[in-house]
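Appendix B. Extra example for self-study. Work through it before the problem class; the solution is given directly after the inputs so you can check yourself.
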Amino acid sequence: MASVTLSSVVKAYGNVPVIHGIDLAVNSGEFLVLVGPSGCGKSTLLRMIAGLEEINDGTIAIGERIVNDLPASQRNLSMVFQSYALYPHMSVRKNLAFGLTNLRMPKDEISRRVTEAARILQIEPLMERKPRQLSGGQKQRVAIGRAIVREPQLFLFDEPLSNLDAELRVQMRVELAGLYQRLGTTMIYVTHDQTEAMTMATRIVVLNKGVVEQVGTPYELYNFPCNRFVATFIGSPKMNMLEATTADGAAEIAGIGKLKLPTGIPAKGPVSIGIRPEQIAIGDGGDLAIPGKVSLVEYLGSEIFVYVQLASGERLLVQAPGDARIRNGEPITLSISGHQAHYFDANGQRIGPKGKRQG
Amino acid sequence: MQKFLRKNAPAYVFLAPWLIGFFLLAIFPILASLYLSFTQYDVVRPPEWVGIENYQYMFEFDYRFWKSMQVTFTFVVISVPAKLIFALAVAMLLDKGIRAVGWYRALFYLPSILGGSIAVAILWRQLFDYNGVINSVLRFFGGDGPYWLSDPRYSLWTLIVLAVWQFGSPMLIFLAGLRAIPQDLYEAAEIDAAGPARKFFAITVPLLAPVIFFNLVLQMIEAFKSFSGAFIISGGTGAPLDSLLFFTVYLFNEAFSYFRMGYASALGWVLLLIIAAFTAIAFWTSKYWVHYENERG
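Solution. Structure tokens for the complete assembly:
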């Protein structure tokens, strides 16, 4: 196990900067997930930690050691690639043993580690097969096995589940979480899928355009997003945003009405009010009743997503129980409560409590 | 039948030039040469059936046949691997992402286009002549070059160098093959602590094996058939001391210097069988060392 410390790390391709001076401390034994939209630099950051990509400025330390000039092979880490990157001409056994052979490890030790990894990942019957004879899930297991046998101090995962179908992805997610609990090794995991991030991470780093937007536990990111970007990026379905002006301790939402601001939210200037779909109630009973018309209902079984068109022209997404009887086209009244909402200033920064409570 | 003709006649009319060419210029000469290889034929008199006498003579008495085999095999065994290794080395250099790679590709491919031509063979003769460019350079540095072309110890080597110089076409194929190897395999190998040599032998070579095999077969056939360089440089005779007596040069002399068409045909068929045998051996061994990604197994 090792900690990883990034200090003012900068990366540019030619004149195009992709990572703008990132500071990040990954604790030893932590499952840290880097998440962000495509092109935000999360894979680049991971590859820089791996040593597959040079850094232009700053330092990267694994444990106490600065590894800027250390080749990937000497950083004592393993990486699982999105494409699996299995050696196509080698059997599963040889794929697993390849790295250990390169380290000139004794044969008995190689054999012990390979057998152990095969047992953990339940790939024993596949050991003599070639990668082309494996299914996607099996390939991913072998790729993880190749990472495990090294017994590294740090695991790196680069979108390892994105080539799998939905069902397998959920299954592998659970297995990976189990593996983390079992090994307890520091893991850095890149994904664009926020469900993966929320379910697996001990902490999440939200990246956007080469900048860290927020670092926190899944609970903190969901309940206390530090800005509009994090608020709308984390959570599925997305958070609703309503624009308002504040005066006399209340927010005036154009064409809808006044919402009393909870204490701690200063009443001055324009604000964006963010409300998660599950925090909007159907019927009146909250601080502000909002009339509208149902424009679309998505039925998911246990829940439904209701798209409501407001008279002001805006559209709200509401999450309701699966047995709610709501039909397209009918009028509906929604209500929101001021203390459940998130408030962002004109610059998109959070106003109000920046909680650190754990969920 | 009439209906068939009426329906398909236009198609056959359009196909006719190719069909006539195929039967008249390919199939007929092939079959004719097979027949002639069992005859004595000097072009002037009609061919005279001699059974397997040509083949018997070739293997039992004709020391020049054996000499030509020796020269040709030496040439194939040295020039083909040398050319492939050189081509692969250049392809790997170009694959590193050098600037203006397109220009280099064109530049390196040029000898392959020129290489087979008479002009280059003549140029080669000028270069390696005792008073040619190579020796002038050697003399400039105080050395004294040998008689490259007229000393049997060196003459074949000049042709091997000429063959290796024409590395452009296998190089381009290697380059395409190298580009097709996924980069993340090298990255995985990098993390797996594989050094450059290990990456080359454990990743590049096995994944390039289908391309290596393709180039090997193609270049081997090409080398067995190699003619114009040896013919021009040896003045058409295989000189000095038959050191450049390539199989094809010997065949040409038998046919067009001595008009022993029957015997030359037999030589031609033996060359065909040799090439076929070596190609078959290459294919047979390939299942042990060539890995195809999309193969079912």
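Self-check: Strands of chain B lie at 39-40, 48-49. If your reasoning did not lead you there, revisit section 3.
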